Description:
Largest sheet: none
Strand content: under 5%
Radius of gyration: 18 Å
Structural class: mainly alpha
Shape: globular
Distance between the termini: 48 Å
Number of strands: 0
Number of helices: 6
Amino acid sequence: MSPATIFNIHLVLGYVPWLLCFGAYIWPRLKLMDRVEAQRAIATLHSFRFFGLVFLLPGVVGPNLPAGFAVFAAYGDFATGLLAMLALLAVRRPSIFWPLVVAFNLVGVVDLFVDYYHGTVLDLPALAGQLGATYVIPIVYVPLLMITHAAALYLLARPQSNAAPAAGDKEAGGGLSSRRSPSSAR
């Protein structure tokens, strides 16, 4: 099998385990959280996207990794990560938090779609070895990022429920551990 074929198989199959995991464990939990806590959980994951700057590090990526891919991927991830961190810092200021949540999700989705586009146009599968250690990013990390962006945007568009928080949620700080489990919602 050629490296390009292996890379394409990895790209597609990278979504399968994340979709299974997300559907079984993450999505049921996110749906039970209040809007702010669900978006905070997603923003926390995306706050690590500063790591995308690694696409610019010689020695980590090969010298023939197309700059047309590496530069946009690096700075798109970096911008998304910074916006996610700002959202997390602004969580107590809804007038700032919600626009930042929308911004990091829109910037992040555009970044990933443009990265896929650049990867296709620049024939990244044929140059997959040039990704070096960053090979794991599009195969393992990007599918989870795309899935959580879709979830975040869905949760933003979904009508707000009028349900009151479960007893004890405010006293417990409203974190993940204080949310009802999917089984207790039945």
